[in-house]
Amino acid sequence: MSSFDWSSVYAGRAQRMGASEIRELLKLLEQPDIISFAGGIPDPDLFPIEAFQHAYGAALGTDLSAKQALQYSVSDGSPELRSWIADYMGRLGVPCAPKHILITNGSQQGLEFLGRLFLSPGDPALVAWPTYLGALQAFNAYEPTYVRLDPRGNAPAPALPDSGGRAKFAYIVPDFANPTGETLTLAERRAVLARAEAAGAAVIEDAAYSELRYEGEPLPSLLALDAAAKGGIDNSRVIFCGTFSKTLSPGLRVGWVCASATLIEKLVLVKQASDLHSATLNQMAIARVAVAVFDDQVKKVRAAYRARRDAMLDALGRHMPKGFRWSRPEGGMFVWVEGPPGLDGRALLERAVKRERVAFVPGQAFFADGSGSETMRLSFSLAEPDEIEEGVARLARAIAG
Amino acid sequence: MSSFDWSSVYAGRAQRMGASEIRELLKLLEQPDIISFAGGIPDPDLFPIEAFQHAYGAALGTDLSAKQALQYSVSDGSPELRSWIADYMGRLGVPCAPKHILITNGSQQGLEFLGRLFLSPGDPALVAWPTYLGALQAFNAYEPTYVRLDPRGNAPAPALPDSGGRAKFAYIVPDFANPTGETLTLAERRAVLARAEAAGAAVIEDAAYSELRYEGEPLPSLLALDAAAKGGIDNSRVIFCGTFSKTLSPGLRVGWVCASATLIEKLVLVKQASDLHSATLNQMAIARVAVAVFDDQVKKVRAAYRARRDAMLDALGRHMPKGFRWSRPEGGMFVWVEGPPGLDGRALLERAVKRERVAFVPGQAFFADGSGSETMRLSFSLAEPDEIEEGVARLARAIAG
Predict the structure, then answer these.
(1) Are residues B305 and B281 in the same domain?
(2) Total-model pTM
(3) Residues 128-167 of chain B whose Cβ lies under 8 A from any Cβ of chain A
């Protein structure tokens, strides 16, 4: 008997719902003898397991608390957690209150909500070339026209396409960006805000990696700068997407959006329609763990990842052939490598995995226009320094042929 | 200084993102002296707390397991949980495999994904009048034209609007529907499937309440009927949205979609773009609790809610004035009351809360066309039988004036 033709009932936007090359790739890399620089995945050896054991034990430990933890809860999120996050944002230079915070399932869900709220088909969305693939995936369903934004100011100012309307937002990862590892200077941050203001666009600030700084002084977030300039968060055009994924745990899927109360009120409706609320118990546990260990945990992961970044930069300096350049990130999880013109990153990956048992992500996936075939993203978060040295040596052998 | 004008960057669809009257209402009903028939909320006294304590203890109890529980995981969901659900669906008469299952954040997220995947602006979507408000909210962002589907066959067959294209799906709650409490007969199920087939539409089956049957024999799900008729789930047009919210815990936000592998593959991409995956730890815990206590737990909640349904039907029979009719649900959480023409459910609610301290949900919110002002939804899930008796007596007094 014939099966139902699903494509006959799909919306037009379904054509732009594609698989993430990276996540497909990760499935292939589970063999233990491969040294993987592929996934941007926190090292589970660094998780604050004991703190989570206590937190879940406490949340489920009394009948009263367990009944709350397992029950429906409000769409905007746990008051305790929103209150902790509001204080935390205050420490980042963003004076705000719980009404400026929405709890989401990781920052990914915040990005998807913002795509849904802002983008009509054909609307211009300003993104960097390259940029976080997951953001492109989140926005793609809403059929934007991507316009190149060069937040470092090296590329010409974007011309908006004739077909589209007004640019709805600029999406920016200001600190240790995925995939490039680059950080915007203070002047570049101000320039991005000025350009967004001139274009009448909102700014989506993806702060996923911001806590992972290994050297230098923290720079103010785009939201901190804009809120200060405009007289408060409620006047700002910046939407800050934060997450506990890179500090406490990615698997619990707890992140947040911090923005003007007007926008948060609208996003609460989006959250309600999407999945009612984030898991009550996980919010309770994250709040407890954040109170108990956040600062110490950040110190711990910074120290571990700093050593790995140093090992990777050392190894690249020693092993990579002429014609290759790479970023020197002040934080985050990634080094971005640009090979000589003509390099085919996908072909290199295949050779690297088969012959040398080392993996990375070909950079092309991060370009909204499909360019960048000569680039690669190397993550240093998951391997110990000696593995990193060995992995980079293998990569250099794969490049050599 | 002036604030950013968010409405200037909203997509057209944002106009249809409205607040749920019910959830707004629930915020007002937290005073302890109110007897509430408002929320469709499981009784937390029935949660299997001990089983969850064991499950979270075990999932976080060893380093190996804790590292897995707190780490990123695959977008389609935990293999153990999907395997349990596939077996469960088999017991419901739907032979299937884990590849036919996607884990979602409650069934609500499944509904939102399906709206996103299927609906272009103006597309007809067939829904009952009245129907689950959360489904309307999930679909609204994708700007459908709602067309009345009367699954009981009392209303005339829907005429599709000239402006719209082809109906993309029919959304049906076959068992103990929210808000009416009604259950489709076997003949009505077959008729719904035949009508969907004639219209070339998919069928979204919302099974949120299906386990909560208090009398009579379970009827086959729409998916079971269609898969049997078409030679297997991969040929079926039915998409089954299930949840653990009404049986194990709503706060953990774990549900599933069960459908043709072709559709599930597409939905996995939607899940990935939306929030990467559902919380790893919660999936592990739900899988353990389901293995350990699912059948006993279902027996327990059925017994408790059956007694409350009986108490509510008894009390309605004794207290309600002439001119009121109500459903006699075989399961679920709701009795649907239709008052005489001209009754204003919202005004009655205000009077009932202020004067008599009893609450319900005015039925109008459940009608896609805003009709139904003379209706109310009474939930019996959260009050003990003696409170139900008292609450219905109060409601009758409020009606009397």
Answers:
(1) no
(2) 0.96
(3) 134, 137-138, 140-142, 166
